[in-house]
Design goal:
The complex is a heterodimer of chains A (257) and B (394). By secondary structure, chain A is α/β, with parallel strands linked by helices. Chain A contains 13 helices and nine strands. In chain A, strands 5-4-3-2-1-9-8-7-6 form a nine-stranded parallel beta sheet. The longest helix of chain A is centred in the middle third of the chain and has 14 residues, at 130-143. The two termini of chain A are 31 Å apart. Chain B has 394 residues and is of the alpha/beta class. Chain B contains 16 helices and 14 strands. In chain B, strands 3-4-14-9-10-13 form a six-stranded mixed beta sheet, sandwiched between helices. Chain B is globular, with a radius of gyration of 19 Å. Chain B starts with 10 loop residues before the first strand and ends with a helix. Classes of the chains: A alpha/beta (257), B alpha/beta (394). Chains A and B meet through helix 3, helix 6 and strand 6 of A and helix 1, helix 8 and strand 11 of B.
Chain lengths: 257, 394
């Protein structure tokens, strides 16, 4: 695991807040500005979405932001260019999230090498199955010291969760309900599900995501895990309120309650 | 044994697999673990065959076209999948999958549809079996395929408009997959082609393989030999093509030819010719060839026939192409229209625009006079009347 992520999880065991945004949205050159403003607002780490035309695990809000970002001209190449000076400006851990196809076209090894070069700490590729990861990716992610993060859901069996925990090095992304992102009509408590994960004593920290959108859901999720990931609610917020420091800081303050 | 059955993990060579988000893993795993065991039982096979015979109307005829044979200087047969209930081969698969869904105790069926043929075939099977049915269809397709939307509704299905992305087949598929993620326990997703994560490509191929099984018996009866020299089928996702090829792969005689939709021309920017233009990648949970930008964004294809308008192809076809077990070619919109016009006037059969692609390729071939050629006439053309009216100036 990268030093930045290790340090974070060593220092902080609860109420970790990670925020997701789509690279190239709302404007093509917003990426680093959003990173810096999230850092200043006290977020613990950041997930940057690499937009994809057909994001299966995402709901309409994130898909629309991705579509806009692609229209704006966002590509993986351009994203890496924008992140060239990332580590001169901030030491906040940064994880890239995206889908396998664009990464395959970039080239798996070239992609991981570039991640390491600009200082990316981890990777979430929801459509990369654990079996394929173990077979084709594990050695490479190790070589470049990039954490690979897997998702688990309420439908995942105990055996599967343990296997995923074993294959993970970073944290385990606990999907709150069996749903796509942004399904936040009501945040299911699902205490049983969370408790059972807690009792498994996974070797990796757990962060709960999907459907966290206000201080109530934030606090609830933090009772059962090391922290949360917020995406859709943040995209909605910056769509309306913009990406300036005040806007982002007020979002984070409200969320933490 | 068929040499092109996938591995346990669903790979045909390097193609296929199940590249799905974890949210779909249990659904896909349940199917992977159960589909062969369910399908291979005698009871299942009996029920499936009886429904194909008494409800779908199988076997479909193998028609010797004197007119086409004379014109092209070979023995040309048409496999009349257009005579199936609901007018296309799609129903072979929906009947098979709905029986699997019942064995898995699913209460609800979802499906994607482009032109509406698979949607209608799914709604039909659901009506027959009394299962709730929700069809995802691109907003653009709902607009241009109204008669099929009304048929689905009449059959009791709910039609949900897919408004994301380009609002066509690939987006309807995305929406159906998302709906499956949101309803993992009681819902079965009936994919309409040999695409999607393992085991769909294999399962759909098994159900469609009845086409080549019948061709073999019928040819034997008519010619004394069960293997033709060529089998020609159109290729979108590839379900009718694999059905027509299935029992002829690796027989050392039969050359399977798959005809893609060239649209306005393979290099016109308005095409659905995946093999001609595609690069390897992942679409809808499967590794295959797909039409995409350099950066890996999936490109919206173009074909005059909505059923071939898909940016990928089934992984089995990617494999058959790469191993030269099948030849993949393409014809343009215009060539397909002309072939449809000709078959209508010469043989009195109005083919679907999709099937017309297979017919159109006849003109590009040179035959020996003893060659036996089977064209898979995958569907009837009633649904394409508006397009024929417009382009053939009727």
């Amino acid at each position: 695991m990268s030093v930045r992520l290790t340090t974070l999880f060593e220092k902080k065991k609860s109420n970790i807040l990670s925020v997701y945004f789509t690279a190239g949205y709302p404007e093509i050159n917003d990426t680093l500005k959003i990173v810096k403003n999230l850092d200043a607002a006290g977020v613990d780490f950041i997930e940057i979405g690499m937009p994809f035309s057909d994001p299966l695990a995402d709901g309409p809000v994130i898909q629309e932001s991705s579509q806009k970002a692609i229209q704006n001209g966002m590509t993986i190449n351009l994203l890496f260019e924008q992140l060239t000076d990332l580590r001169k400006q901030t030491q906040i851990p940064v994880v890239l999230m995206g889908y396998l196809n664009p990464v395959m076209q970039y080239g798996e090894e070239a992609f991981l090498s570039k991640c390491a070069e600009v200082g990316i700490d981890g990777l979430i590729l929801p459509d990369l199955p654990m079996e394929i990861y173990n077979q084709d990716w594990k050695v490479l992610t190790k070589k470049f010291d990039i954490s690979n993060i897997f998702l688990i859901t309420p439908q995942s069996s105990e055996e599967r969760i343990k296997a995923i925990d074993n294959a993970s090095n970073g944290f385990v992304y606990v999907v709150s309900s069996n749903s796509i992102t942004g399904t936040n009509k009501k945040f299911d408590r699902q205490a049983e599900y969370y408790n059972s994960i807690k009792q498994m004593n996974l070797k990796n920290p757990t962060l709960i995501g999907f459907g966290i959108h206000d201080s109530e859901t934030f606090k609830e999720a933090c009772q059962y895990s090391n922290g949360v990931i917020v995406g859709t609610a943040f995209i909605k917020h910056i769509s309306k309120q913009g990406i300036c420091k005040d806007s982002i800081s007020s979002f984070v303050v409200q969320l933490k309650g | 044994m068929n040499t092109f059955s996938p591995t346990k993990e669903g790979f045909y060579g390097e193609f296929g697999g199940a590249f799905v988000p974890e949210m779909l893993y249990p659904n896909v795993l349940e199917l992977q673990n159960r589909y062969r065991e369910i399908i291979e039982t005698d009871a299942f096979q009996k029920e499936f065959s009886e429904l194909l015979r008494d409800y779908v109307g199988r076997p479909t005829p193998l028609f010797y076209s004197k007119n086409l044979s004379k014109e092209h200087g070979a023995h040309i047969y048409l496999k009349r999948e257009d005579l199936n209930h609901t007018g296309a081969h799609k129903i072979n698969n929906t009947i098979g999958q709905i029986l699997v869904a019942k064995k898995l105790n699913k209460k609800r069926i979802i499906a994607e549809t482009g032109a509406g043929q698979h949607g209608v075939a799914t709604a039909t099977a659901c009506a027959l079996m009394g299962l709730e049915c929700v069809i995802y269809m691109g907003a653009v397709d709902i607009e241009r395929q109204k008669p099929n939307v009304d048929r689905m509704k009449l059959l009791g299905a709910e039609v949900v408009s897919a408004t994301s992305g380009s609002k066509t087949l690939k987006d309807a598929t995305n929406e159906a997959i998302r709906a499956w993620i949101n309803n993992p326990v009681d819902t079965h997703y009936i994919i309409g082609s040999v695409v999607g994560p393992h085991p769909y490509p294999d399962m759909v191929a098994m159900f469609q393989s009845v086409i080549s099984e019948e061709i073999k018996l019928q040819l034997k009866e008519k010619t004394g030999s069960e293997n033709p020299d060529y089998v020609i089928a159109c290729l979108g996702g590839g379900s009718n093509a694999i059905g027509a090829f299935y029992h002829f792969i690796d027989n050392n005689k039969t050359k399977p030819i798959a005809v893609e939709a060239g649209g306005e021309g393979v290099y016109s920017g308005k095409t659905a010719a995946t093999i001609a233009l595609g690069k390897k990648g992942i679409i809808h949970g499967s590794k295959t060839y797909l039409i995409q930008t350099e950066d890996g964004q999936i490109v919206e294809p173009h074909s005059i026939s909505a059923g071939l308008d898909y940016p990928g192809i089934g992984p089995v076809h990617a494999y058959l192409n790469d191993t030269k077990k099948a030849t993949v070619v393409s014809v343009t919109d215009e060539e397909a229209l002309e072939a449809a016009h000709e078959l209508s006037q010469k043989d009195g059969i109005i083919p679907a625009l999709e099937s017309a692609h297979a017919l159109a390729y006849l003109k590009k071939m040179t035959f020996k006079k003893e060659d036996v050629v089977v064209i898979n006439l995958s569907g009837r053309g009633d649904k394409d009347l508006a397009t024929y009216q417009k382009h053939l100036k009727l």
